[in-house]
Amino acid sequence: MGDLFASWRDRIDANSKRAVDLYVRELADFRRIATGARARAAMLDFAVFLRQRTISLVAEDLPFTDGDLSFVTAVGRERAASGISFGAHRDVLRLHHSLTLREVDEAAGRHDLDDVMRTLAWWPRQGLAAPAAYTRGYLLGQGTVLPEVDRVRQLTSLLVADDPAAAELAGILAVPVPEPLMVVVCRVPGGSRMPDSRSRTEVARHLLSRQRIPLRWAEPGEFVAVVADTAAAERVVRDFGESTGLPAAAGASHAAGDGAAPAFARAREISRVAPVRAAPGAVHYLTDLFAEVGATRLAPVDGWLREMTGRLATGPRLISTLDALYRNDMSRSRTAASLHIHPRTLDYRLQRVRDLTGLDPVSVRGVRVLSTAVNRALAESA
To answer: How many beta carbons lie within 10 A of that of residue 107, not counting itself?
Structure first.
């Protein structure tokens, strides 16, 4: 019979030193905090503690104690307070898991199959409690170094990536996550006057004060929020427009059984084909713009629609006229009133559309083609 645990225990000091060396070499944040001998010694002590407790608990098939987990949580807090980024936090957990498997493999002899299988069975049942406690401590510790708006931004990123840590962080921040949820994306066109990072943070802070929901405005051209329903989606889009004064296009998607990440991808795709409005308020869904989404996935169709909008661009405000016509359910009187023109001027413009495209704007085929072409043109407007 072999003795995996005795062999593994004999290697604790060497394995712990190797782990710390790896973290410092591979992760810039850990390299920064390990510059002092005292800090590096603390990292080594923690690595030794984890290995000693893991080996003992696996051998007896026991879980981590409350005292163990409290200590691990405290270390996670300290790491966050020292400025370790969330990316480095995740990387060190990945490296720790990889090293643990490697250490088991190196310690195992030819007669240790039963102990190896016992270790592999223990890990998902009991071993994940320590990384979870470390993550909880880290997320709690971030409160001492990150403003709330930045932590909510992090929460939003975790949510739309279907990251399991999102639930823990949402609880810490007391930000409710609806179930089921909806993801909203507001796209700000590239030609707009883009605010800097500080201004975006201030807008996000203001919006968070109005609706305590997961939201972020990290990239200049994309604002993201997670809401409960269509009413909340319309409210956050309207608030975003009023707070920024920027033109934008809004897309949204419900998270079905496939999770938030696919919903985010759909909402982003919809926002990219949604018409840009000077005062955003309307939220578009796949049912609204399925033709436009489909067209962007087929280059020949998209090219044909671009050719159609090119013809319309040669006429007197034909794209904005058709947009108003379809937004007013093809009511001649309401369309003319919204454009502040005489109905006869509207009739002239619609005739120009017929002459340029060969399509009647109020026919079934005309509505299908021209409304899609108009939305594609408006989606690309600045």
So the answer is: 23
